[in-house]
Automatic annotation (TrEMBL):
It holds the Pfam family zf-RVT. InterPro entries: RVT-Znf. This is Reverse transcriptase zinc-binding domain-containing protein. Residues 18-101 form the Reverse transcriptase zinc-binding domain.
Length: 103
């Protein structure tokens, strides 16, 4: 593959043409791609699952912990799935909740 951009100068393809796609891909290559978005917005997941995962990664999933942060009174802030006295957070729901692990 020919290097088309070097030291601030554009190089042309072997055919002598400028490629916008190569330019775009080279510019994108300078930044690390966020693999999480690739995992969330895959076409293999159902839209509602994509949305819930996206909310969880943005820390905007409406868990009891977030409801408390929004200064809305919550009777019991513990996880209702595993019935342990652990606060219901999105991290707990997606990784450490015993009920979820069993499912
Ligand atoms: Zn739990």
């Amino acid at each position: 593959m020919q290097i088309w951009y070097s030291f601030g100068a554009y190089l042309l393809t072997p055919e002598g043409k400028y490629s916008l796609t190569q330019s775009y891909n080279t510019l994108l290559g300078q930044y690390a791609s966020l693999r999480m978005t690739d995992l969330i917005w895959t076409r293999f997941a159902q839209p509602k699952h994509r949305f819930i995962l996206w909310l969880a990664t943005q820390d905007r999933l409406l868990t009891k912990e977030r409801i408390k942060r929004l200064t809305i009174p919550v009777e019991d802030g513990t996880c209702c799935l595993c019935e342990k006295s652990i606060e219901e957070t999105h991290i707990h729901l997606f990784s450490t909740c015993e009920w979820i692990v069993k499912v």
